[in-house]
Write a structure and sequence with these properties.
This protein has nine helices and 24 strands. By secondary structure, it is an alpha+beta fold.
Length: 402
């Protein structure tokens, strides 16, 4: 077995500049899209770690482009030279998509010599030790960092015989295909779940001719901190309840928690903080035993006549957003909170179908959500297994037969 810093005897270490046949910057041309035939402009936002996102591509005027030089060629590697610090240094192999494209000048383009496989090189640059080496070259700030090509060109990368590079690249492509398939299935499951949830909640409204104010089927929770040990939590629009120390990298203690609200398992909290993900705030149920949450949250428990699991789906679907938009006063306060009075929040109406119908809808949606979690776990495992495989194959610790 190879040590951590060794490569096989049949491999060599090569500076990137020594395996490159041709390199150039992307184009600075933009032009007017109305001047004639238009082609795609690949920008840093379209470039991922080893892949491209072509769902939203800018178009530039074909007449402004030097066809001999600027048009992307199949097998070229595009390298991101400027981005946020955690994103700079991305690279991917461009493949012929049947239509012409150019790259902008935040991307460097290079073509390898024939004894190097571009997919192998990109896999190394985008993962593990290679990725760390690339990003260590970045200069600038967290928001805007740059990597200079003169530094990238001096990077040393493992260089197996080209036949072995081809085999390694083929193995990794097989894993990519499995990951892409799993990701597509997960996306389809999420789309299906969102549609079923929307239809179910809309149908539940038909059982109640007059929507019910939230305050009528809930009781506000204003329980103060009892001085005992409880996790201090906050609410994220994307992730629900999170430990405050995980989100803000600091712990709250002592008198700073005196006015926090003590929440019990199964109770709800509405965070009226404004965010791009959730401009009307976000509302989640606590699944942990207890938590201390900021006193500015609107906390409540559902009445016994209301099936809590059903209302988890109602709130997570954004059912209240349209009503909240109408009652929230314009602007955001200096503390970042929406101008929303508790009485206006609890006047928002929710569907209240018969209890057995609430249970039926909740059980159906819970089953679909459980299925989504299984697909998420499957995708996570595939991605983790691929990362482990790459660490072995790209360093020569595991060999392939050619």
């Amino acid at each position: 077995m190879q040590s951590k810093h060794q490569i096989p005897k049949s491999w060599k270490l090569a500076k990137l500049k020594d395996i490159i046949q041709r390199t150039q910057l992307g184009t600075t041309e933009r032009g007017e899209t109305a001047c004639g035939p238009n082609i795609s402009l690949i920008k840093m936002g379209n470039l991922g770690w080893g892949c491209f996102d072509l769902a939203d591509v800018e178009k530039v005027c074909r007449d402004k482009i030097n066809t001999e030089i600027d048009i992307l060629r199949d097998g070229e590697i595009l390298f991101n030279t400027r981005n946020a610090a955690n994103l700079v240094g991305k690279s991917a192999v461009w493949r012929d998509i049947g239509s012409e494209a150019v790259a902008d000048n935040n991307l460097n383009r290079f073509t390898l010599l024939s004894d190097s496989d571009p997919d192998f090189v990109v896999a190394y640059l985008n993962d593990g030790k290679g990725k760390k080496s690339v990003q260590s070259l970045a200069v600038g700030s967290t928001s805007v960092a740059a990597i200079y090509w003169r530094d990238v060109a001096l990077l040393e990368i493992p260089s197996p015989p080209v036949e072995e590079q081809h085999e390694i690249a083929a193995i990794l492509r097989t894993w990519d295909e499995a990951i892409d398939k799993s990701s597509s299935l997960l996306s389809a499951k999420r789309t299906h779940f969102a549609a079923v949830r929307r239809e179910s909640i809309e149908a539940s409204c038909k059982f109640t001719r007059t929507p019910v104010p939230l305050g009528r089927i809930s009781a506000r929770v204003r329980r103060k901190n009892n001085g005992q040990e409880h996790p201090v939590m906050t609410i994220s629009a994307k992730s629900g309840f999170l430990l405050q120390s995980d989100k803000y990298s600091r712990d709250m203690a002592g008198s700073s928690l005196e006015h926090y609200t003590l929440l019990r398992q199964g109770e709800f909290a509405y965070n009226k903080g404004n965010s791009l993900t959730s401009p009307q705030g976000c509302l989640f149920r606590l699944e942990q035993d207890s938590a201390l949450v900021p006193h500015v949250y609107f906390c409540f428990s559902m009445a016994e006549t209301a099936f809590s699991d059903f209302y988890v789906h109602v709130f997570e679907s954004g059912h209240l957003n349209h009503q909240l938009f109408r009652v929230i006063n314009s602007g955001v306060r200096n503390d970042g909170l929406l101008n929303l009075a508790p009485e206006d929040f609890f006047r928002c109406t929710v569907p209240s179908p018969p209890h057995d119908e609430q249970v039926r809808i909740a059980r159906t949606l819970d089953a679909l959500k459980s299925e989504i979690r299984l697909y998420e776990r499957q995708l996570e495992l595939l991605q983790k297994q691929k990362r482990g495989l790459m660490q072995k194959l790209l360093t020569g610790e595991w060999r392939v037969k050619c």
